[in-house]
Amino acid sequence: MPTRTARMDQIEAMLNDDPHDPELRYFLAMEYMSVGDEPAAAAKFSEIAGDSAYVPAFLLAGQVLNRLGNTDAACTILKRGIEIAGSQGNTHAQGEMQGLLASIE
User: Closest by alpha carbon to 40, among 13, 83, 8?
Assistant: First the structure.
């Protein structure tokens, strides 16, 4: 069973007040990464990417999904993230995602 952290509990308590906060959800996904639970992290990052325009989640979702061997899902999320980053003028994140996408397609 994956390890739980006190930080996970704190973030989940804050999410009770605002369950759709993409930044808090991102922090929770990062906590799953920190304990080595990449499948849970990938699910959390993918959820954020599916219902928000929080650009960092797209890159991390693509990276983790790719490491887990789910390249089709990684590519789909990265393509959407590239569009969103571009529309936000975030050329740095857009370039990172384009590089990752090019390396796995």
Answer: 8
Rounded to 10 degrees, what is the CA torsion of 44, 49, 53, 55?
Answer: 80
Asked if pLDDT for residue 1 goes beyond 80, the answer is: no
- pLDDT tens digits for range 23-64: 999 999 999 999 999 999 999 999 999 999 999 999 999 999
Instruction: Map out the domains of the chain with their CATH numbers.
Output: 6-104 (1.25.40.10)
pLDDT of 4 reads: 85
Task: Specify the residue for token string 């007040």.
Answer: 17
Q: What is the 3-state secondary structure (H, E, C) of the chain?
A: CCCCCHHHHHHHHHHHHCCCCHHHHHHHHHHHHHCCCHHHHHHHHHHHHHHCCCHHHHHHHHHHHHHCCCHHHHHHHHHHHHHHHHHCCCHHHHHHHHHHHHHHC
CA separation for the pair 54, 93 (Å, rounded): 11
